[in-house]
UniProtKB/TrEMBL annotation:
Keywords: Membrane, Transmembrane, Transmembrane helix. It comes from the Eukaryota. This is SAYSvFN domain-containing protein. The lineage of its organism: Eukaryota, Metazoa, Ecdysozoa, Arthropoda, Hexapoda. Signal peptide: none annotated. Residues 76-145 form the SAYSvFN domain. The chain crosses the membrane at residues 67-87, 93-109. It comes from Trichogramma kaykai.
Length: 153
């Protein structure tokens, strides 16, 4: 019984550490892709207690300081502004600005596949995975074709 209690306390301590790490990362700017996030092992129900409590399940690398990230952002902004001024002098400013916006949009959207166990936006805002009003599904489309548009309620 004591062993189970110690294991439970260790697990709660680790969950608290993970929660604090998540909160510190939420404070950072979301558009920085070079931020090192901790690797957390999500155990399934079948894992034994030893694999759940192993030290390898959480990466304890310290997050970068807010001063460092803000300084880095400021330096990136200065570099972009300098190149933008040069592009304006070469009468290439509008093209540089549009290409910069496209690169900014690309890096602020998902560029890789979804991670295992990660929720999609649909499941986050619609936990029961019900169809959203106004979504056209094949069953409704077939019913409208056969019986007319007023047959769907």
């Amino acid at each position: 019984m004591e062993e189970k209690l110690r294991a439970y306390r260790r697990q709660k301590r680790r969950e608290d550490m993970v929660e604090t790490a998540k909160n510190t990362f939420k404070e950072a700017l979301s558009w920085q892709k070079n931020l090192i996030l901790p690797t957390i092992h999500n155990p399934s129900r079948d894992d034994d207690l030893e694999s759940i409590m192993s030290e390898e399940s959480i990466d304890f690398s310290p997050p970068p300081s807010p001063f460092f990230t803000r300084t880095l952002c400021f330096l990136y902004f200065l570099l972009w502004t300098t190149i933008y001024v040069i592009a304006i002098k070469l009468e290439f400013g509008a093209v540089y600005f549009v290409l910069s916006l496209l690169v900014f949009i690309y890096y602020n959207t998902r560029t890789g596949p979804k991670k295992k166990g990660e929720l999609s936006a649909y499941s986050v805002f619609n936990p029961n995975c019900e169809t959203i009003q106004g979504t056209l599904d094949p069953k409704q489309f077939e019913q409208e074709i056969r019986y007319g548009g007023l047959s769907v309620h």
